[in-house]
């Protein structure tokens, strides 16, 4: 459909004479700039969209993330997404298998017993390891977290957390691990969610997964 005269000339009509007069090099440069601009816009749109990871197996799980990039998982883990800056880790969210020893009674007690040896392993893994907190947690669809005393029984998804500080590449890191097992008697196989972040003014080891870029994968994490 032809454009009415009162609305002309169009941008294409205005630019056409300059385009015809431009050298081949100038035209190529203009096309390159346009391609780079379109790529930048596309990258920005993709960065604002959430990606999802789903994993099958004995204990299937899924979660959404944004502002993080999928990377090769470390040995012994299922998946990992992370964010780096200048070659240094800023944030990492990984999921590893969890297998508790056989137990009778509350899984909360089984968690506490298993945690003793696990914390020693963390201390051996990370330089300058310092335990900050440990114990059961309660969540409402992972939207909020509340530390509970060790005697409390968790009624929905049995959950346990370990928060710590450590050093890597000469920098202070905050770490938090969250253990989840299916909510049925004697459940032993679950997942170990491992979170790391560079130390920052608005973070603490106990708030990892509740604020910042790691909150989205934690809040959307689903077993089954």
**Tell me, what's the shape?**
elongated
CATH architecture of the largest domain: 3-Layer(aba) Sandwich
Give me the Rg, rounded. 25 Å
Question: Which runs of at least 5 residues are low in confidence (pLDDT < 50)?
Answer: 42-47, 140-155
Detailed description of the structure:
It is built from four helices and eleven strands. A hairpin with a 5-residue loop joins strand 1 and strand 2 (61-65). The chain is 27% helix and 34% strand. The strands form two sheets. Strands 3-4-5-10-9-8-6-7 form an eight-stranded antiparallel sheet, covered by helices on one side. The protein has a three-stranded antiparallel sheet with strand order 1-2-11. The protein folds into two domains: 5-47; 51-223, Mog1/PsbP, alpha/beta/alpha sandwich (Protein Transport Mog1p, Chain A, 3-Layer(aba) Sandwich), CATH 3.40.1000.10. The radius of gyration is 25 Å and the shape is elongated. With 224 residues, it is an alpha+beta fold.
């Amino acid at each position: 459909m032809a454009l009415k005269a009162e609305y002309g000339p169009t941008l294409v009509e205005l630019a056409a004479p300059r385009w015809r007069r431009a050298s081949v090099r100038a035209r190529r440069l203009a096309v390159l700039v346009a391609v780079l601009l379109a790529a930048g816009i596309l990258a920005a749109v993709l960065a604002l969209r959430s990606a999802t990871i789903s994993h099958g197996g004995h204990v299937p799980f899924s979660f959404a993330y944004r502002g993080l990039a999928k990377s090769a998982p470390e040995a012994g883990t299922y998946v990992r997404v992370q964010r780096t800056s200048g070659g240094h880790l800023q944030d990492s969210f990984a999921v590893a298998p969890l297998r508790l020893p056989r137990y009778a009674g509350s899984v909360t007690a089984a968690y506490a017993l298993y945690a003793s040896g696990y914390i020693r392993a963390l201390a051996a893994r990370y330089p300058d390891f310092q335990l900050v907190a440990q114990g059961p947690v309660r969540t409402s669809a992972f939207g909020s977290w509340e530390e509970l005393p060790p005697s409390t029984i968790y009624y929905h998804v049995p959950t346990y957390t370990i928060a710590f500080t450590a050093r890597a590449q000469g920098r202070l890191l905050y770490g938090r691990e969250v253990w989840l097992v299916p909510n049925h008697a004697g459940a032993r196989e679950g997942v170990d969610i491992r979170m790391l972040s560079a130390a920052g003014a608005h973070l603490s080891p106990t708030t990892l997964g509740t604020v910042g870029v790691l909150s989205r994968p934690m809040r959307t994490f689903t077993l089954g």
